[in-house]
Amino acid sequence: MYSLLCVALACLVMQCNAFSGWTQTSLVKQVELGGSFSQIQWEADIQRTDEVPELTTEEYRPYIIYLSQTEDDRLSYIRATVGLSNAKKDKKQVLVERGGAVLNSHDTYWYAVQIPRELALSAEALRVNVIASILHDASPLPKAIKQGEKQYLVWSGDVGLRTPYATQFGRVMIQVPKDKVVSYAPDDGQQTVKGIGFGPYEGLEPYDPVSAAVLQGQVRYQYDRPVITYVELNRHVEISHWGDNMATADTIWLRNDGAKLDGHFSRAAHMVKMWSNPSVELATQIHTVPMLLPAGAQDVYFVDASGNVSTSTLAPSANSNGMPLPRPLEVQPRFPVLGGWNYSFTVGWNQRMSSAKLLKRLPGPNRYRVAVPYLTAPNTAAIDETSVRIVLPEGASDIQVTLPFKMDLEQYTKYSTYLDTVGRPAVILKRAKCTSRLNSFVYVDYTLSPMAHARKILAVAAAAALIFFVMA
């Protein structure tokens, strides 16, 4: 009991130290609603309140933002920049770290934006911009519609400000696509061209989860697009030094999370509406899945359980100033994917590592570095689960992986295929709750000696010689 009390007191002291030292002249929270995920941006003008910041031993000073439990549970991505408030440029990207639940609160979580020492020491006001992606932040209402009917989504969340600092001026803006607001609450919100504004709030005291609750609101809007979710995206990458090739295959389980179909699907009605008013018929159906394949992608294939998806469209290879350009691909499913429906397919391609500059020779004997893109996905899709398996050449050793962000799983294993002797080393990475913002490179360093490089040739030669002598 005594030890638990000590831990609680230590956490309280730590939070009090982290949450002090700043006051906010303004805080604007902007929620940009979409389909399967939304984007939240906080813009704060802050001023330090103490005369001499205690930064003698620490390189950073934290600025704290609060997220609701729903935002924390569904958070995919969070980044922050900071700079002088009166400077439009020279913004520095800084680290954001999750702190955990706020004491005495079951629905508030705090994140620390690490303000660099040179800015934290400044007597001038600072501007902090934080951007976050929240998955599945809106849901269809009604949950089921008839074929061809309009689709509506509803969002619920904070329309008041949740912040640990005293704030002179604050506002919450809810943006919806193309001025499609149907209804909102509370009624004192102000409708603008881009959405709904709540506030302004003036003279706000720091949020206390014990004595007050954050004002909640709701916005219902028309959404004339499919709600695209990648339930799973499994990427398999094989590296070949002999072929100077990176072979990539993405297996995707796609789902339309929009309003489900009420009743049966009519192919005849679908064809009539495709001829008379295709934009309305396709508004909430997944008719094509756009993908942007990397520059230099070749030998592209796209298949599903029935075979080649021949209705898809792949742009021809193009160059700009002698450099290959990314290749747009539109995978067209064999049937329109309506709300609640699924579709699975695989897209694969090859890349020459030398021309794409994906493989680099490092200092040291037989040391290499390969750059592997973590994912490829439409910028409107939420990705629930991702898995990437990177298969290195047989005999690769001393493997080191540099990650662009935190993973849920990092595992080292073996992968065996034809003509292998001991199997190829493989790295498996997994992460949940992703968007296209996480399309970054994973860097894998490894050693591949000439003897290990020639292992397969020697094994094949030995097997051929053995067969020859046995048959002789």
Automatic annotation (TrEMBL):
Pathway assigned to this chain's UniProt record: Protein modification; protein glycosylation
UniProt keyword Signal, yes or no: yes
InterPro entries reported in the protein's UniProt record: Ribophorin_I (IPR007676)
GO biological process: protein N-linked glycosylation via asparagine
Compartment list: Endoplasmic reticulum membrane
Domain of life, source organism: Eukaryota
Range of residues in the leader sequence: 1-18
Keywords annotated in UniProt: Endoplasmic reticulum, Membrane, Signal, Transmembrane, Transmembrane helix
Ranges annotated as spanning the membrane: none
Protein's membrane topology: Single-pass type I membrane protein
Function as written in the Swiss-Prot or TrEMBL entry: Subunit of the oligosaccharyl transferase (OST) complex that catalyzes the initial transfer of a defined glycan (Glc(3)Man(9)GlcNAc(2) in eukaryotes) from the lipid carrier dolichol-pyrophosphate to an asparagine residue within an Asn-X-Ser/Thr consensus motif in nascent polypeptide chains, the first step in protein N-glycosylation. N-glycosylation occurs cotranslationally and the complex associates with the Sec61 complex at the channel-forming translocon complex that mediates protein translocation across the endoplasmic reticulum (ER). All subunits are required for a maximal enzyme activity.
Similarity section: Belongs to the OST1 family.
Subunit composition and interactions: Component of the oligosaccharyltransferase (OST) complex.
Protein name, per record: Dolichyl-diphosphooligosaccharide--protein glycosyltransferase subunit 1
